[in-house]
User: Fold these one by one.
Assistant:
Number 1:
Amino acid sequence: KNNDLKTEIVVLGGGPGGYTAAFRAADLGKQVVLIERYPVIGGVCLNVGCIPSKALLHIAQVIHEAEEFGNNGITFGKPKIDLDKVRSWKAGVTKTLNDGLAGLAKQRKVTVVYGLGKFTSANTISVAANDGSTTSVQFDQAIIAVGSHPTKIPTFPYGDPRLMDSTDALELKQIPKKLLIVGGGIIGLEMATVYHALGSEISVVELMDQIIPGCDKDLIRPLHNRIKKQYKNIWLETKVSSIQAQAKGLKVSFDRADSIPASGIHTIPGDKGKDAPESEVFDSVLVAVGRQPNGLTIGADLAGVNVDERGFITVDKQQRTNIKNIFAIGDVVGNPMLAHKATHEGKVAAEVAAGHKAAFDALTIPSVAYTDPEIAWMGLTEIQAKQQGIEYDKAAFPWAASGRSLSIGRKEGITKLICEKGTGRVLGAGIVGTNAGELIAEAVLALEMGADAEDVGLTIHPHPTLSETLGFAAEMIIGTITDIY
Ligand code: FAD
């Protein structure tokens, strides 16, 4: 049977970047084929990333809130965890969205081809389906959206089910008694939050001198202080030198990391001296040390598309690769590896491919750690301002002075605003606290609109809300709030 297809635009990869590009191109009147190797659309984000992790994090939040409110007069019993039901609830959330995407593809007459796609030239992709059949797709233009996969450390005993990556961890096969998280970045700490709430004893090991490297330390501190009490260990500047599979667990050996910070100063107190042991046995280890782009696996050379040795594909502001009719978007084009970057780039690529004028010109891509408390930041960080010698005014409004924060039983948050010295123009913001991920959106809009501290400070925010804290931080900069009580 001849399955061969001919199309105006082919999109390789059905993650948030790919399906967004496919839908946009179809909406602009283009004939579109979308190729996805798994039998569902949605990519890492929907199937093994953003969405299932947030579903499980919500469970963690419910458990913690119920526990902590015991101090304030409402006591619940110890939670009973039915893992099968938790898993099927998570799967239900994902399936609803998978089905929604399949419907959106159908409505737009996007042809979805399931199978592993590889370029065979700058105008053809060959797709190998699970049943052994192949389809050749001939195209005028292509959008590469093949995403990324978890970084593996070659010497670790992969294949042992007790050694997990984020995909395994989200499956929630069991709740290990003693869990080590290798990597104190966003993904590692989100999974730590989930497993801690479900009853695991958590240890975190991080190479750098702080958790969530790259984020300003003042924003990290409230999270660090809270999890320090909840978790068994947080080992900074420490690396895992080996993991050996043993009958009763995974034996992990630790080393001091060579990379002591240039300053030699540990600005987060309390962990210096609390060094990791030489080795310790864990029931399970989750490795969350970053992600690698999938650019080296798609026959890009046969299309003439340049891929660097790590697997990233370089693109211009219109998402075009070095080959004129081939675009690339999402995790495979570089950091930050975030779904909202991928979707935004997907729209740009589809519009350019459809002959419209478009370019990626976002001023900032916000980052959010959905830990408890959440941390969100956008625009310039203080670390960057200092590195780049930018003069700035800063205000940090403490949530201990927010009525709303106190009335939800939490007060450790901070809302920080960074403005250009002299003009007051918003350059950056960072928020740590409940719902920080929702709250950062206002700051992103302020930056995109070129707002200054007065614009934000004189905007009436509803009372009592956490959103007021951004207004208050701006008022601290313009001088209309001087006293915090
Ligand atoms: P992907 O989502 O990786 O999609 C690529 C698709 O291409 C996949 O479906 C893959 O199967 C397919 N594919 C690859 N190669 C081929 C081929 N040769 N042929 C056919 N198909 C192929 N980001 C956020 O913004 N917010 C979050 O809260 C968040 N949480 C995360 C939590 C976890 C645990 C993880 C792992 C990631 C998280 N991310 C989050 C990151 C986010 O998932 C990615 O940035 C996003 O999925 C990237 O989208 P993409 O379209 O570039 O690629």
Number 2:
Amino acid sequence: MSFSRRQALTMIGGAIAAPSAFGVTRALAQNQNATPLLVQPARAEIMPGFITKGLVSTRPDGPPPVLRMRQGHAFTAHVKNGTEDYTAMHWHGLRIPNDMDGVPYLTQFPIAGGETFDYLYTPPDAGTYWYHPHCMTMEQMARGLTGVLIVEEPENPGFDADIALNFKDFRLGRDGQFIDLWTARGAARTGTFGTVMTANWTVDLVEDAPAGGLVRLRVAATDTARMYRLFLPNATGHVIALDGHPLATPMALPTREEDALPLAAGQRVDVALRMPDGEGEIVEVMSDAPGGPRRMARLRATGSSLHRNLAELEPLPANAISEPDMANARLEEFVFGWSPQGDAPNNGFCGTLGYTFWSINRKPWPGDAATGTGPLATFKRGETAVLRLRNESPNAHPIHLHGLTFRVIASNQRAVSSNWTDTALLQKGETVDVAFVADNPGDWAFHCHVIEHQKTGLAGYIRVL
Ligand code: C2O
Ligand code: CU
Ligand code: CU
């Protein structure tokens, strides 16, 4: 789907034309089983002792809820915009129809203040995903509008508890109020980091879990810039899924800082762990941080021991994703780097930061499909695509593709685990090849998930016919 420039301008001017593209979802607005999500201003105590104003959530006083849906079952979110800015909601990692993907001007018009949009889809893959706006992305995400999205397997693999941790920074001053959400200096480099690191909007969160029980811990890195580095110093367990998808062979749990698992902006990890037997005993969830390791959360054992054993867990069933046909793959190369344009404004899909610092193939994307920019690459439906992603900048870039799930098949710097993912981390100087079958038609946003990079040129889209 694409929109003419005139339609787009009408939209930005505030008057919503009635494009036929909206017809389908509007008709579903009466669905009684819809999950209401009211995007609204919020306030909460993020720094102990201070109430932070100017947050954005889908609740007035806390983080957006964990959304739970079932694999293969239809889900409807009734998103209402209760703010004065535009918004649009994206379901990161879900392979759903293009018109439900939530990308302004590429798949829908932005949702104006007071307006609603119904997202209806059936998640095909189980696992840990997340949701966030794709319009005014920097402002709304930095102010808190990011939530964990869980697609449950048809059967519980045997856990006693399921705990989601949403890792996110906030840029707050000493008085607990927002300072500049980002800086041009940060945007032109590695991104602007927050001053307060939180899990579920809480510093050093405490969560109860049954003593001696088996816990599925899901961690989502939803910050606009920060790459967390996860380790659990006194935990027993293993890593069972990355970026939503089960690992064929579970990975050792990182327990030492040196072995910490990088979780770049947009990435997720599922950990299976066994709680200690003694009531009150703690499992620490840590991340590396500039000033030294930070405790993000504590899991506290409660009750008398369930005496479970990790070996009792069923392996997670694999999601049914088409295997790339490497013998007939078509290669497209991309290079990510700086842009010479600096001060030129860039629309970054929807809502500008006013700068252009980054580029794909040496061209910054002007920022929306309405300006007539074509796709970065086009694949025929069913074709196997290999994207060679080359980072020629000194900064790390978590590169994300919407609507399609790919395997990382090679890197010039490391052995790759070839798990399915939607967000590939490119370190300084790294070239990574990813492969997928182009089996989901539409225009799919393709961008760095450091939001300041995305919004200043490091973005575009890929078309599947
Ligand atoms: Cu999670 Cu286009 O992003
Ligand atoms: Cu996405
Ligand atoms: Cu980047």
